[in-house]
Structures
1.
Amino acid sequence: MGGKILVGLTQMSLKGATSDSPEKLRASMLDARAALIEEAGRNGVQVLGLQELFNLPYFCPSKDLKWFAAAETLPDSPSVRFLSAFAARYSMVIVAPLFEIGGDGHYYNTAAVIDHLGRYIGKYRKVHIRNAEGGIEKFFFTNGDLGYPVFETAYCRLGVYICFDRHFPEGWRALALNGAQLILNPSATSVNISQYLWKLEQPAAAVANGVFIGANNRVGIEEPWSFGPFYGSSYIVDPLGRILTTGSESRDELVIAEVDLSLNETVRRTWNIFESRQPTTYGGLIAS
């Protein structure tokens, strides 16, 4: 796979109140998201990424047990069924980050991948789980246990890396070595030091690994967790580190860019990073 494809990312504010039931909020978010998905379909988007926990608030600042009721079982989940119809209608691959309850009874921050025929083809579970002010994620999520899968789709070999994962270069490299041509990084990140890093880390990872990266974020404030607004600024970056398109800091929006996957190999041949690696010297990186 090495041709041109059209990639889209959505960013959206919360529709409803965090005091609403998880079921009501999910219905509101799905209904609101439909307009952006339809817009993507009309514009010929072939791979569409939704934001982290796309159908819920970013509830991790709380320890409210009600959010466990929002977890979905894959593949037969309300959100996957809803999105599958759009994927089939528009021949569009959709990456849908959601709250999952696994068959093991553990809860995960997961991205479901739906192919252009509307079929669920697999999932990525967020590996790196953060515990800090403004995001007590380990109260809700177990560390992902599926490694770094790459999904063979009709348009590209696709990887997913979720939000806090982006601070760990090892996963970007693992996805690239596993064959990813495009990596989507759905996020829920608010105004603080991360805003400075937002347009540094992913372009650097794109260059280091010779891949396209799509990074998207939420927008707005989600009361009562007023620790700073989510700042949007979703973008797509090429393997030379050039940002091809970017969204606003405050609006619900679809951002789209055409990417030429053949550029991955051009960049990799130019820098020879993969060929110059010395894995036998890296053992100390994983010593506990």
2.
Amino acid sequence: MDRATQQRRVDTFRQLHHGEHILVLPNAWDVATARVFQRAGFPAVATTSAGIANALGYADGERISREEMVAMVERIAHALSVPLTADMEAGYADTLQGLEETARLVVVSGAVGLNLEDAMAGEASPLYDIQLAADRVRAVRESSAAAGVSLVINARTDVFLANVGEPETRLAHAIRRANAYREAGADCLFIPGVRDAETIATLAREIAGPINVLAGPGVPSTPELERLGVARVSVGSGPARAALGLVQRIARELRERGTYEGFTTGAMTYAEANEL
């Protein structure tokens, strides 16, 4: 992908966080699923680290190598005509220098942005010190700009997802972290694990930048999230796990009943799949 095309996609994706309506961002795990989402009319697509890792035989949580993850991101980015943002977990690096290399590789892949978590990979749940986590955001900002494309950074805090601290402290903690990441250069602030409307509204009001909420059971609908002030909603590994659930049901049907409804009803045609 030439740099001018990539930069146009970066600009488009960044602007989508400040539009009149919420950005609904589906998460793909290979070229075919990304093309399905693009054909459905979504203005941008994201990857899911868990979906890609699982498809390649790994558990989620940076068990997959950085090189394998970037290779899939590159495949998807070059197959789309809309912006692609990459879920790069905690950056596949413990050091700032390693993180800078991750950012450079994402630029080279043709993606327009990345997710960056503040949870330490391989640990039970502890988060990076807030200053170090902000420095990591800053490193991605500076490294990607030096590589020629200032990536759209979706800085994620796992305060709620990992149940960090006492329940009554989590809201203020998440707000403090998100604002620090925003000051360090993040474009959007991702707070997975929140579900109730009151907490989401407070996050949208108190965080000085667009926020991203993870869709799932108990999370308000996208029109309601838009009303609450959310700029972006993503679905994470949900579609990938739903697809695996379908395959599991097909396996049971074949094994237990010897019938074929699971993959003959509602299936995409052979020709349509090839067109992807």
3.
Amino acid sequence: MGAISLHGFILSTYRSGDPLTVDGYRLRKADLKFSGDVTPHMRWRISFDAAKVLTLNKKVAEINDTATLTDAALDQRSRMLQDAALTYTVDRRLGFDVGQQIIPEGLEGTYSTDKVETIERTMFVSERSRAVGLGDVRDVGASANGFLASGSVEYHLGLFNELGESAGTTDLNPQKAVIGRIAIHPSFLPQFQFGGTGGYGGGTPVTRHERTGGEAEFRDHGFTIRAEVMHARDGLLRRMGWYGLGAYRANPRLQFVGRYGRWDRDLGAEEALTNALETQVTVGASYRVEGSAKVALNVIRQEFPYVSNVRSGTILLAGFSGLW
């Protein structure tokens, strides 16, 4: 039996001032990742997020003018299992992943949490009140990944049960979802990359899923400038979000960040929190105390410009994390 590698990441946050959430601490992430070799070309990995909270999917019907719970089932996406996959690497140009894995959707949505410059990911990735987030989601399937043109072209192409809706379970319909992401790394401008995401899950107009997105980033030893946009169709629901981010690393330990983002949960409605356009301005800083231990502070101005009955607010978010 080969050696087994163990890695972990813990993120705790304290949130204050959010008009939609009670002030308090939260265990945001508690990741454990195990991995090892099967053969010289094949590796396995299993990861868990012990901070996940199990949730129920509920069905309610009106019986005799009374709302009655008719069915309840565990949401399989809320289980702590994250990745459970095998990776077979041919060479740098081609590798295959089979199992439950992050789908190739967007740039920030494929970053590990410890590499994200802000405490919370951008809204279209982290906000999941309707359907699933547009990034940092997993599903069961197979993907091909690699680099072409001497490393200038990075590609990811996968065939999955769904686009994040069926993680932890079997597919409930015969249609499969295909999604791909491509990123160009120009050899003559090594600090730049740009690319896009496209995805399609067939079915009727009520069950169809589509994804389209674009990304661009400049990164060197001192600065990061990144912008992304993502549009989604989930049945009759259409969603869209985008953001622009800038980060400055004053030294290897200290980083300052600013981000502006817009997220519309439902392009066809503007009536309540569940479908309102939301904007956020985030400014903050982080400091690596020792090794990978980091403290961060973000101030977030959150507004819902077209819904008068949802209060805007200024949120203070503190994060404490460690990676090993």
4.
Amino acid sequence: MARQLCNMTFAVKNLGVVKQGTLTQQPLTVLCGPNNNGKTWVMYSLYYYHKLIASLGENDLPGRNLLDLSKIIEIINKDLVAVFNTSRDLLKNASFVPQLSAEQLTDQIQSIRKTFLMPAERAGLHLFYRELGTRRTALLHHASRENIDLGELLRDVIHSRYAMPIADYINWLNQLSENQRNSQGIFHGYGEFLKKELVRGAYTVSLRTGDITFKPRQRKRDGNRTQSMSLHMTSSTVKSLFGLWFYLEKQAKAGDLLMIDEPELNLHPKNQRIIARLLAKLVNAGLNVVISTHSDYIVREFNSLIMLNDERVQNLRKKHGYQEDEVLDSTNVGAYLFDNQTIKPFEISPDDGIYATTFDEVIRELNQVNDDIYYSLQESSDEQ
């Protein structure tokens, strides 16, 4: 099995709303916190770092002069503007700095890993990727027929409207037909788990056109199986999870990095627990996983999987239907709170899992409000 990423520390300063903080990447890294606190900014920066390192490993650059960590850092911080496709003023003084020794950096470059990021916009991208991918071709065709400023149009065509991870995901979707020809990989079984437990049906990608269809598993009332349908006719869950299924089925390899922005999107709480178990399976099978999440269900499920790693409660695995490949070693998990313009590590222990107080406070407040309303109504009823 390929080695997983472990104890890789990154220092962040002035990146979006994040003024400062550090995080250490583990085989499973969880980014939590309220909305608009920089989780996606850090995820995208981490994505670019790994993409850059992989490109150095794939290409024997002249002189190998980029092996110097200071030059790697210089490239990352210079390219952040392009990564986010924004103005330089917005990222003034921003920095994303890997804190590695020269030996660690060399080892990473020589151990080529592919990085795959599923953005939060994925459900819509699964439907409109062709239109987004062919926009430039259509504009060029239009320019050949209309009396417009060709120079201005070409600048618009060449300049992407999206952050790099989103643009990369659109390009990946437009290569579905080509990648569909790949044979089933070692993560095929986990794709089958996703189909059985989460979407309850089967995806198909046309080799000729790349069209995506889905066939539900349940039967109709008359006993006939339901027909295949275009992806745009399916539920939001089926749309959202297509990319993860295809990646696991055709492309994932041990040692690679899977990043998911909000894996809980469109999922019922029960399915949020199931996807947490799937992510744990992937980590234990050799994938590196980074997620950002607002889901208390996912974090609490990780807590259970960490505590179930203790042999003293092994009997509870069978009682509650957990598999051995779903339990998590606490030393392979890192979790971070994004709040008040900082990044802070959560405490993680074999006995308690991830001590994510950010969710506890909201749940406690919700319960208090609910109790106050309920008992006030009861008192009013008693007085009548």
